[in-house]
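Archive entry: two folds, one per protein. Generate the first.
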Amino acid sequence: MHITPPIAFLLLATLGLNACVSSIKPETKQLDFYDFGLQSNENRVSFDLPIEQLSATDAIQHSNIRYRLNDKNPTQVFGYTESRWSTLPAELLRQKIVNAPSHNTSCNVKLQIVAFDQVFDSASSSHGVVQLQAGLIDRRSRKQLASTLLSAQSAAQSADARGGVAALNVASTQALQQAADWAKQTSQSFSECQSSTLP
């Protein structure tokens, strides 16, 4: 087939333009995935009471690694674009728990993660913040006997996702230990938690 010069020129120009567009198209960066690493005895927390439930609010229970800029707008939540959790935050905390259910109590513990953020006080200074809503539940009546909000924080060694993850690892262990201590101490104030005929 014979192609007239103007048509041939247009075809060559189109091919050249496509090649230029392809060459300047930004490469898609592979996501970095984080968890808390292999757990050691130092990072695990023992509970005397059974954990009935460990959950997180909908705003937290996803793979985004969140951060806040306290020096600009502490109410606005951001997420790292190239970094993600490899599993959900509730599962990250669940892996830290050593739960030895006691048959001598009819009380359980409920935990909900309500904050799980890296908080920047300045461009170079940040810390990880973990807040847990803890509740003491009577298994027989399903009544909540007591509740409290627990908070822990740990300084980040670098102003990036890697530093935030490491800080949240430490802060989550501290928050879980607070929850274990609170549940043990609080349960001693309730007769419902002292003995049980439940299997």
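Generate the second and append.
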Amino acid sequence: MKVFFNQLFDYNFYCNKKLIEACTALESVPPKSMALFSDVLNMHHIYNEYIDKGQPTYQLGQLHDLSTWGDVHYENQRNSFEITSATDDFDKRIDYEDAEGKLLIHTVQDLLFHIINESAYYRSLIEVDFKANGLELCRTDYMTYKK
């Protein structure tokens, strides 16, 4: 399971880095794309904290300046790799309160997979926004990555 998640987080790291580089090269990033990628960063951070039983510093809807994306992204990835390295039981159940105060229970595996899946979903929404704004697409799907 560690190898599986490390591969997925490598993919996630590559795609987010590619998107950060593409946005940095733009004169202006569309506001919707800024909000969506900020939530990629926020969600990743929040779910890492749920697993680590920490208190999230970021919240969904919090905007990050483009100049900080790389650092936040790197820190999220580093934390996820620490989690996968330290985890022996990916079926371990984690109880946490979501942003609405609702008590939830999921496995470490579920929470880690959610980070990857939700990141891919948000990146696809950014691709749609790029296309709507006449910008070049980044192609961050998994099979493009594997080529």
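Annotation attached to the second fold: The longest helix spans residues 108-132. Residues 129 and 135 are 8 Å apart (CA to CA).
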